[in-house]
Amino acid sequence: MPTIFILNGPNLNLLGVREPATYGYDTLGDVEERCQTRAAAHGLSVEFRQTNHEGQLVDWIQEARESADGIILNAGALTHTSVAVLDALNAADLPVIEVHLSNIFRRESFRHHSYVSLAATGVICGLGPHGYELAIEALAALIEAQSGEAAR
Ligand code: CA2
Q1: Catalytic residue positions?
Q2: Are the C-beta atoms of 129 and 122 separated by less than 8 Å?
Q3: Does the CB atom of residue 152 touch ligand 1 within 6 A?
Q4: CB 116 within 8 A of CB 127
Q5: pLDDT tens digits for 5-54?
């Protein structure tokens, strides 16, 4: 069964607990549940994780390189600061969908630049937790297309 890593960066463990006006009322556990259901419908296995630590995120992206078929990444604030995350994504050589709950382009200008986008196949932002489900749809199609190419 193809495996996807859904990785979440700093402070996303606070989802549903603080700042509902920006990030909504769903907890990260709720988001994982939606992801597991949607991925199962596509025959995908999901490794869903969150960390507050940049190095941990880099380690998980390196792990994905070995054992996953694609990555969905909400790197939180590291999106806007981390060359280390960008380098890990480039080294992973996997399809990457970047997700943000909020529309980062309606927010402060420092959120308008994303290092992650430089390595992402696609970007989804502003659609709340539904964005994760859309990212799974996109990744499922990309993985399917890749396996079709490999068989030809
Ligand atoms: O919109 C997103 O998903 C972000 O990646 C969230 C990050 C932010 O730094 C990015 O610019 C956009 C922040 C995650 C913090 O999540 C919280 C959730 C609830 C309460 C407080 C923080």
Answers
A1: 23, 100
A2: no
A3: no
A4: no
A5: 999 999 999 999 878 888 889 999 999 999 999 999 999 999 999 999 99
User: Which helix (H) or strand (E) segment is 97 a member of?
Assistant: strand 96-100
3-151 in CATH: which number? 3.40.50.9100
Does the CB atom of residue 12 touch ligand 1 within 6 A? Answer: yes
Distance (angstroms) between ligand 1 centre and the Cα of 20 equals 11
- 51 residue type, one letter: T
pLDDT digits (tens, 9 = 90+) for 59-109: 999 999 999 999 999 999 999 999 999 999 999 999 999 999 999 999 999
In ligand 1, the atom with minimum distance to the C-alpha of 102 is: 1
Residue that is written with structure tokens 């700093």 in the block: 10
